[in-house]
Amino acid sequence: QVQLVESGGRLVQAGESLRLSCAASESAFRNNNMGWFRQAPGKEREFVASISWRLGITDYADSVKGRFTISRDNAKSTVYLQMNSLKPDDTAVYYCNVVVSRRPFSSWGQGTQVTVAS
């Protein structure tokens, strides 16, 4: 059974940094590309970033490129999202998932709320 548990979200001020973590079940994590998505109030869930299983190749949405960094620890079945220079537009619930071509491929966890105050 796939399990994804996101954590690390909180209220921050614009310009600050935050690191999110996602602990995944091994069945979800092993051999899969992993990524982050977010859903802002009143908007659809959108792709944020992904990282490949073996080579750690990363992919970012244009809106976060240069500010966010995705990484993974395969030994811990955990994926991270380092978010720098946060903006109010980054306010959303952040979710991790297995990723295929920027699309989610598994069930969702509960997400973690990130709120950026101006």
Task: List the total number of helices.
Answer: 1
Q: Please give the largest β-sheet.
A: 7 strands, mixed
Tell me the series of helices and strands, N- to C-terminal: EEEHEEEEEEEE
Instruction: Estimate the helix proportion, in percent.
Output: under 10%
Radius of gyration: 13 Å
Kindly estimate the percentage of residues that lie in beta strands according to DSSP.
Answer: over 45%
What class, by secondary structure content? mainly beta
The count of strands amounts to 11
Low-confidence stretches: none
Kindly state the mean pLDDT as a whole number? 95
Shape: globular
What is the terminal separation in angstroms? 40 Å
Quick structural gist:
This protein is mainly beta.
